[in-house]
Prior knowledge:
- There is one protein chain.
- The protein is mainly alpha-helical.
- Helix content is 19%, strand content 0%.
- The longest helix is centred in the C-terminal third of the chain and has 10 residues, at 62-71.
- It is flat and about 50 Å long.
Amino acid sequence: MRWPLLPPVDEVSVLYGLHDREVNYDPAGAPEGGRPEGHWHVDSSATLIGREPPGDPVPDGPRATACILASQYEFCRRPDSARRVPEW
């Protein structure tokens, strides 16, 4: 029999619980306007996967890749690693 590595997690409760948590960094050193300072790494909110010609999606083309990536997105299942996202 295979045992789970981690206990079941109620994702909704964990997400609601983030509101009361403190951030785990100094907000004064946070990047502003996408400009990193010090050791910060700022990911882009948009990535070009590829281009397709006008018309129907190309089989196995960039749209298919994007669909796979979006369908495989998951939330972290370790509640102790979840942190509050700063309000902008």
